[in-house]
Amino acid sequence: MKKIATFNINGVKARLPRLLEWLEETRPSVACLQEIKSQDEGFPIAEFEKIGYHGIWHGQKGFNGVAILADGEKPVEIQRGLEGEPEDDHSRYLEADVFGLRVVCIYLPNGNPVPGPKFDYKLRWMERLRRRMAAIRAEEVPAIITGDYNVIPTDQDIWSPSAMAADALMQPESRDAYFRLLGDGWTDAVATHNPRGGMWTFWDYQAGAWQRDHGFRIDHALLSPELADRLHACGIDKAYRGREKASDHTPVWVQLRD
């Protein structure tokens, strides 16, 4: 079995003790990280290597940034960044081959405020992602596209739909773009195993959201047809959100048959 996880860490240096703790306690085969908020030269790879993980990363000063760590094996980079907007310098996309899988780590734009240029950028980015995902599907490789999608797919994926009704994460255009990915043949692992919803991956730091369980699901793992057939289990490591100096996200994982 291989366990692939995604974790928006909200600052790899600020959360390093929590991140190392999670890696050692749950030992995913592959960990995809978002919002590392670190330039490439400052990424603390030596700390991960001490516990047996190797990695590649695509950093940016102060915000964004993605990384792929693998237990005992170095991921082989395939692509960083998405084609279609040469002027887009945000570090949001990283693709690699590891353990016989194509693993893609994404940090999709938030898109707020709506309407506006940031929302337009989000929708364009999702269309660019869709084109890349179509190219990966055409290769017929077992693939997982995982990370922070910044999309709440359905009303079942949030504690109160009315609370975020005006937010970019819940706009019809955002949801339509997400469901177009599923319509292309990708499987939302968590939704497949939990059709009734009620599974949150994010709780805001404000207004006692964690304590009141006012969360929503925006961290997703989409599987290609070749990989969906191998889905054994999936879950959300909710308890890690409650630890001291935690990220506002919690890890999401899938377990795949060999």
TrEMBL record:
GO terms for molecular function: double-stranded DNA 3'-5' DNA exonuclease activity. It comes from the Bacteria. Residues 5-249 form the Endonuclease/exonuclease/phosphatase domain. It holds the Pfam family Exo_endo_phos. Its EC number is 3.1.11.2. It is an enzyme of class 3 (hydrolase). Its cofactor is Mg(2+). The keyword tRNA-binding does not apply. Keywords: Hydrolase, Magnesium, Metal-binding. SUPFAM superfamilies: DNase I-like. PANTHER family: EXODEOXYRIBONUCLEASE III. Belongs to the DNA repair enzymes AP/ExoA family. This is Exodeoxyribonuclease III. It comes from Novosphingobium clariflavum.
